[in-house]
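ugh ok fine here u go
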Amino acid sequence: MKGERQQQDQIQKNEERPLMNSADEQVREADLTPKGSAVPSPAEPEVSSVRREAALPLNRTYFKRTGLQPSFLVLRDGRNDRPAPRPEGGAIPAGPCLIRSEEWLQAPELTSLYDSWLASEDGPAADRALQRIYYRLRAEAAELLESPDGDWAVVTLLSPPELAGRRSRLASLQDAQLEALFAAVAERQRQGGECRLDLLAPSPASAAEFAAQREFIEEVADQTLGHAFAAACRIGALIAPDAERAAAGEIARIADFLVLDGAAGEAAPEEDAAQDFVAAAGQVLAAVRRVRPAAVVFAAGAAAAPALADLYEIGLSGIFCSAGQRTEALLRAACLTWIARQENMDTAAGGGL
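structure:
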């Protein structure tokens, strides 16, 4: 009963503050919350000691759509290898950069620490290893937020496959990651910098599982940065294209946005992977829109960019793609949007010129 009440409360919250709205609304608007007061740097002796109250609202841009023509966002999947300087004048990113946090564990400094922590039994040795992992994760988060990619980033919650059967260890690792991220946000804000941070819960199998992940994220955010930040942080779900359709629809009720991740199918030939991805994405999107017509659904993975035209056609909100794919994807999306806009204008004029 408690879980049902929490999900119902979350559905009501999401209806009040969707990340993106329906296709009959505007592309985006700079609806920024007032800058809050500076937040002092968190204490660092223990991972858990980072948490404390700090009423700091996070500046936020909301997606919306244009008149009759839906927009289609082409966003970056992964850090830019050659980051461009920040634009002058406080330009707001069109959307977030997707950061897959499992790549952080592949850094040489973290790999050895992580392996040592996995091999250690519960006790002081494991605690010390986890503490060192926290500091490395915090350094990675600080580097991200100080870069142009950190102007608006959406970061996946760590979920290594080797911890699938070790739930307590997984919870400890995710707790350290969240505290590292939020501590980096607090430090960035204390220095007067602007950054936006959203989170993705990885592969929830059901709405109940996602609700538990969301509650965990919000609890850590509330304890670390205060309720204002926890309320502003957008939390989405990263789901596979072969996810159970009914479950995807129920997750969409309480998620701020969804990302269909085609990374799992990247071993197939590009054309076959794109076709399979589009077919699966269409089924998931149909299930989601039956439950929540205004749901925000993105695609990601190597198959997303080659399938852009089809994903646009079925009504996705946009894609995340690599920096190498993004230029071509932007051009294709611009052409599709222009063609659709012209068709709408001709229809509105009764087909005449």
